[in-house]
Amino acid sequence: MTLCYNKHMKKTSSNTPCPCGSNLKYKKCCLIYHKGANPKTALLLMKSRYCAFAVGDAHYIIKTTHENNPDFSTDFKHWKEGINSFIRATEFLGLEILDFIEGKEESFVTFKASLSSGDMTEKSRFYKVEGKWLYESGEIF
Cα separation of 73 and 81, whole Å? Predict the structure, then answer.
């Protein structure tokens, strides 16, 4: 089990600790993915997506969501507005990875995100499509 902690930061300096809790600077961790590098595992994608929420990168959330996801929309402007509204209303306080089941084309990450609205525990499903991991769905419990 990996425990990660961060403070809410929408304007994130590249030299601050990465919000995913890796103990690396943001520029040496998730910023690399936010700028276009391909996360090699679903776990790295999950952590970089949490980080994207924490730093306010709605574009990355959209780009890394599988088309089967219930929130997926071809109305990217409206979808992005919804994500940004959630980001503005939420403080991202920390991330705890509870379980990671790695597969070649399908993987699962169970995590607990500490948010200003309360803790959220989710088992996320990721699919690998054309060599890239995408967030397909999540079961919140």
Answer: 12
> Taking the model in full, what pTM does it have?
0.90
Determine which helix (DSSP H) or strand (DSSP E) holds 123, and give its type and residue range.
strand 118-129
Q: What angle do CA 101, 69, 47 make, to 5 degrees?
A: 45
Domain boundaries, the chain: 2-140
The one-letter amino acid code at 117 reads: S
For residue 77, with 0-12 CB atoms within 10 Å meaning exposed, 13-18 middle and 19 or more buried, which class applies? exposed
- pLDDT averaged over every residue in the chain: 92
User: What confidence tens digit (pLDDT) does each residue in 15-69 have?
Assistant: 999 999 999 999 999 999 999 999 999 999 999 999 999 999 999 999 999 999 9
Q: Which residues contact 109 (CB under 8 A, 6 or more apart)?
A: 42, 43, 46, 97, 99, 100, 101, 123, 124, 126
Residues 6+ apart with CB under 8 A from 85: none
> What CATH number labels 2-140?
3.10.450.50
